[in-house]
Amino acid sequence: VSLTRFLTFVDFAIDVLRLEDWKTFTQIAIAISFFNTVLLLPIWLIWLGFSMHTVLPQYNEEIDAWSPGIQTTTTANPTMTTTADPTTNGASGTLPRVENTA
Fold first, then answer.
1. Is 73 within 8 Å of 82 (Cβ atoms)?
2. Is residue 72 within 8 Å of 58, Cβ to Cβ?
3. What is the pTM of this model?
4. Strands, DSSP E only, in 1-102?
């Protein structure tokens, strides 16, 4: 992901430099844009699609609240995972409590 960010920044800088020397920087801009758009972007989108299940919120019926879908620990079975405590947001604070007023 950081390679994609770096190449996007370089692509922008080279697009600006094309104002100075059109022929030289056009070839470089085409190569970097092709690599970034045709190769790295699809790879990143596929990776993002496979990792979405870990960030979806999960509903806890016991406390009637949603919790973030951050996986914190794994059990002895490597295919089974547990989620974060529904009252906290990992180690960075707490989520607001959901009160049932009905």
1. yes
2. no
3. 0.48
4. 58-60, 65-67, 71-74, 81-83
Q: From CA 92, how far away is CA 72, in angstroms rounded? A: 13
Pair of tokens at residue 5? 């960010």
Query: Given this model, what pLDDT does residue 78 score?
Result: 45
Enumerate the β-bridge partners of residue 95.
Answer: none
Q: Identify whether the C-beta of residue 83 lies closer than 8 Å to the C-beta of residue 71.
A: yes
Instruction: Give just the sign of the alpha carbon dihedral 55, 57, 62, 64.
Output: positive
Strand partners, 81: 74
d(CA 65, CA 85): 11
Residues forming beta bridges with residue 74, ordered by sequence position: 81
Q: What is the pLDDT of residues 60-84, one digit of tens each?
A: 778 877 777 665 554 444 444 445 5
3-state secondary structure the chain: CHHHHHHHHHHHHHHHHCCCCHHHHHHHHHHHHHHHHHHHHHHHHHHHHHHHHHCCCEEECCCCEEECCCEEEECCCCCCEEECCCCECCCCCECCCCCCCC
